[in-house]
Specification:
Blueprint lengths: L8 H14 L1 H10 L7 E5 L5 H9 L4 E6 L2 H11 L7 E6 L12 E7 L8 H11 E14 L10 H15 L3 E8 L4 E9 L12
Parallel strand pairs: 1-2, 1-4, 2-3, 4-5
Antiparallel strand pairs: 5-7, 6-7
Helix pairs in contact: 2-3
Bound molecules: S-adenosylmethionine (SAM).
S-adenosylmethionine (SAM) binds next to β2.
Amino acid sequence: MHQAEKPRGALGVVMGWLLERGNAQQNRATVEALEPPPGAAVLEIGFGPGHALEMLANTRPLGLVAGIDHSELMVETARRRLARRRGSAALDLRCGEARDLPFDDEQFDLVYAVNSYHQWPDKADALAEMAGVLRPGGDLLLSIRDFRMEGQFESPGKGATTALEAGERMKDFGLQVRTREVVHSPRRATFLVRGRKPGPSRRVPSTV
Ligand SMILES: C[S@@+](CC[C@H](N)C(=O)[O-])C[C@H]1O[C@@H](n2cnc3c(N)ncnc32)[C@H](O)[C@@H]1O
């Protein structure tokens, strides 16, 4: 398995560093779009070095900051990073698989993943799990990168196709889907695919 899909060992440490820098723009744009209500419980799948979770914990009044990643190295890295977080949110970072979430049903106000969904071998199972741990009125958000030029890691426009398919899959789980595109540069954009679980919402109206 490629290091970006499951960082491990000495090369994994380098990969964590590369993820931190390479995905900073996408993580920032994603966190800006997240709208957890005050005191919310949030869950990130595939958090890597924990950059997005740290930004959320430092800028929003959360009750619980949780995450799951199948790389033990990334769990250790993110735990060290989040130990320095501001705010009073509880922390629960675990090693595990997206397709088998060890959390209670309807426990989270917000469940999201940044630049990880495209790596999951069993996407429908993982989305079913994510929808299951989401409270009614809560949001599931997938942040999917899209390269616009040749010479990057994957073919241009692949992210757009992945985002379209992800939105269709989310509808299968009863989520109300809206997609927004954030253009970072002529080379790179991010698709934010948001699925809202029907039910009373505790948050301010969404911009996506
Ligand atoms: C490309 S990195 C992105 C990390 C971080 N979200 C970011 O944007 O910098 C993908 C992360 O997802 C994790 N991951 C990939 N497939 C997974 C799966 N099936 N279950 C749990 N974690 C997974 C990897 O270990 C890795 O840390």
